[in-house]
Amino acid sequence: GHVPGQMGLWVRDQHDREVLLCADAVWSSATWASLQWPAWPTRLLMHDWRAFQRTVHRLHALSHAHPELAILPSHCQPSLDRYQPEWR
Question: Number of structural domains, the chain?
């Protein structure tokens, strides 16, 4: 939804943890975790608002289906800090 053709990457890290690098699919983990939508002006930045909403719902469902999975948006420092505290 944010930009066309955006992709994520599901990998295992050096500690054998599953990680989804979801890039700019969301900017904050609160968006997918509790379906907290960005402020309405954000829609102006979206290439496709409905696709963005579908992606958020997919991430939300994925987080419930795979609670062990770390979903890391590129711009969500709290998520990155929780995942890898030594990166601070």
Answer: 1
